[in-house]
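User: Hi! I'm working on a homework problem where we have to compare a predicted structure to a textbook description. Could you give me the structure for the chain below?
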Amino acid sequence: MNLYLVRHGRTYWNEAGRLQGWSESELTLEGLEQATRTATFFAEMQARQSLTFHTLYSSPLNRTWYTAGALGQALSLVPVAVGDLREMAGGAAEGMTRDEWRAHWPALWELAQDRHNADFGWPGGETRRTFRDRSLRAIDTILARHSPHDHVIAVTHGGFIKAYLQAAGLDDPLGPRSYDADNCSITYVHFPPVDAHDGGNDPWLGCLRGFNQTRHLHDDTALQLANVDVEL
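Assistant: Happy to help. Predicted structure tokens:
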């Protein structure tokens, strides 16, 4: 299966540096343009490669839902809401800038700096461990709905993309990285058919084929990428 993870367009809270979590924040004018350009890219890719995007999934939060709506209009697809595609819940810290929550919970700030601390979480929010488990569950649920040759788009959040890529143990030719995805970037994960594996014991071992692709947002000639193979 071919899975394209798309981060939502830029929001006002992105610009202000505020922790969004499950809170709602509208797309900026730049974010709206990013969504439109991403939709155009996928429509061009579908037309030139004569492929069909089977399903368009989205986190139900409005910044992702609007981004997915732009893609859906271009691809004649109705977005399907998946709650587990939401961002990490920030609890009481949502709406705060980093400096604000650091001043409010100085001891928590120290815990947050340890990126290996899976039990870190903001008061009233999720822990990293819970969030990573949720990200795996969300993608496993999507995989179970599709055949090996389907092309599927999931519009989600930067934190979700990072959590999933860190937790999934994908085959990444460039090795482990920070996995910080930009607004409206495209990350492409390919899941080979069962018979592509030795013994067929792990049918959904994915390979990261493209991460944080953003050329379609900055250069009109990047739409020519839609005319190449599904690797971005």
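For your comparison, note the following. DSSP finds eight helices and six strands in the chain. Residues 2-227 form a domain with the Rossmann fold fold (CATH 3.40.50.1240). Good luck with the assignment!
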